[in-house]
Specification:
This protein has 318 residues and is mainly α. It contains 14 helices and two strands.
């Protein structure tokens, strides 16, 4: 009796494998664009940071031949050791980062938790907090930057005064009087004053982070809160034991996003130094400064990811 061969049926790809293929399909245009467009530009930028223009050569017709010659690490040495201006502005940019990122992340998390509650007009309030993200781009950003609320303009809205512009809400002396009996250090007083006086900018920089936190909060199953409430957990305990661990991956995302946003903003002191160097016609030196700045950004981002990742909670599917 002849035996019939059974051809095994081809197994269908799992759901995760199909999702992975779809993901590769959607990111393929970006990857192709990076390889064909951005990668050659990056390689040329690296080459320019080690080069300068050599106009000493002349062809048979007497025309100057523009060529490039290597100068080694000269531009990097000049940026780091030749002038203290770039290093000073780098440190000023780092100081702004240390102040801005925690303030933006904490503020956006607070607003997201508030807007995630059941309240009348919740969608309107969400739109209101996201409006600054829209109007603070392009020409509107320049207009706001030159406005009396963000610069010291004579005859502005704050005629009262003391020493400052319209954006001065509280002074160091006010906070020192408030915290005087608490034995609070001067560094904390300075930080609080800067946060309050820069609250307008913090709101402007928190719109995207707020939406990311809202998405994370809405992904938490209500049954978890119901079980905690049955067990007698308070709202404060639910926040620290449920909400914060469940949205900790979003905290990492928003921290990295806020850091990159602070680093690459046109008003950042380091970016200002690089742009001003480029505007003077010294593009090769500005390119070297940009690569130094990029390397520092990558190191800081890696350190931030390493530190924040140790506190991240990932919910297992099984």
């Amino acid at each position: 009796m002849e035996k019939t061969l059974k051809i095994p049926k081809k197994r269908r790809a799992s759901l995760d494998a199909r999702k992975a293929r779809n993901g590769y399909f959607f990111v393929a245009p970006f990857v192709i664009g990076v390889i064909l467009v951005y990668l050659p530009i990056l390689l040329d930028s690296i080459w320019f940071s080690f080069s300068t223009v050599d106009r000493s050569q002349v062809n048979e017709l007497g025309q100057t031949i523009v060529a490039y010659k290597s100068v080694g690490l000269q531009y990097y040495k000049d940026a780091l050791f030749g002038s203290a201006t770039f290093v000073t502005k780098l440190l000023a940019g780092m100081q702004e980062l240390i102040f801005e990122v925690p303030a933006v992340v904490i503020f956006s998390l607070f607003i997201a938790v508030v807007l995630n509650q059941k309240m009348l007009g919740r969608a309107v309030f969400r739109a209101i907090f996201f409006v600054p993200v829209i109007i603070s781009t392009g020409i509107m950003e320049r207009i706001i930057h030159d406005d009396i609320f963000s610069s010291n303009v004579e005859g502005g809205i704050d005629e009262g005064a003391g020493d400052g512009g319209g954006s001065q809400i509280i002074s160091m002396l006010d906070v020192q009087k408030l915290f005087g009996s608490m034995k609070v250090g001067g560094e904390l007083v300075t930080y609080v004053v800067k946060i309050v006086n820069d609250v307008y900018q913090i709101i402007n920089y928190s719109g995207v982070q707020m939406l990311i936190f809202l998405a994370g909060l809405q992904s938490i199953s209500p049954s978890i809160y119901e079980a905690a409430q049955i067990e007698g957990a308070t709202g404060w305990e639910s926040f620290w034991k449920i909400t914060l661990p469940m949205i900790s991956p979003m905290i990492l995302v928003n921290t990295v996003y806020s850091a990159i946003n602070a680093f690459t903003r046109s008003t950042n002191p380091a970016m200002t130094a690089i742009n001003s160097t480029y505007d003077t016609g010294d593009g090769f030196r500005a390119t070297a400064m940009a690569w130094i700045y990029f390397s520092i950004i990558m190191i800081i981002i890696a350190a931030v990811v390493g530190i924040v990742s140790s506190f991240i909670f990932y919910q297992r599917r099984d």
